[in-house]
Amino acid sequence: MDGYHCLGRLMLLLFQFCLRKNLFLFSILSLVGIQMLMALILSDLSGELVSLQLSFSPERFQQVYSSWSLEQQQAYRNHFGLDFVYPFAYGGFFCVSLAHLIHKNKVADSWIWVITLPLFAGIFDCIENVFHLLLLDVNPMENAHLVLVAAISASIKWGLLFATMVLIVLGLVAGFIHSKR
Q: End-to-end CA distance of the chain, in Å?
């Protein structure tokens, strides 16, 4: 079996796994639970968190981070334990959601690959987390490359999540249209 067929087989196995009945409930409960815990930990950071994630310059990263109080900086440090689990929660939920929509709408098997988009978003989220952790212990002004890699990873993550949301909305609309026929 060549690499292409092996990858196709793995994709089909992932798709079939995502269609398991209790997996949707488990994935949504995991996502909501972790989201609630992270919201508690990061409640004081609100909008500045995304600004930090998308800081392409060391000056902006330093400006956002240093504007936080010591308690807020510690809260940011403390959230990483959950933030390395969170990509698995949202990645799983969106992967399962896409698989169910593909199955329900009888989309061609050639589109099964889209269920991997949120999984790749999760990978880039973890890369972003690693570089943000590194940046907390060094001077961002002297490590612009770390800021850049973190920001590029965050941008790719958000792009993949946006594409996932668009596909979910399209799947829901297609399902609604098919149900009215």
A: 42
